[in-house]
Structures are given as structure tokens and as C-alpha cells.
Amino acid sequence: MKKNNYKTITLNKGEMHIYDFGKIKLHAYKTNDFLNDEVFIIEKTANQ
User: What pLDDT, on the 0 to 100 scale, is given for residue 2?
Assistant: First the structure.
């Protein structure tokens, strides 16, 4: 995976990086707090 191929969305608290793999998207939320947590969410399109 090319880690520099993503869309960045700046939020009030932290930022979201969205990696698009076609039918699946990976959302990586960086909290930018003192723990420097990162949360991963997988988004999949529904089967038609």
C-alpha cells in the first residue's frame, strides 16, 4: 500500500486520512491528543 495515496480531512479534533481501494475504503482517524491514538474504520460498499 502506498501510504502517501490518501485524502486528508481536517477535523476540529485531529484529522482523517481516507484510503480508497475501490469497493473498500480505509479511514484512519488520528486524534492528535497527548496519547496520539489512531482509529481504523473499514467502509465496504453493499452488494447489489
Answer: 58
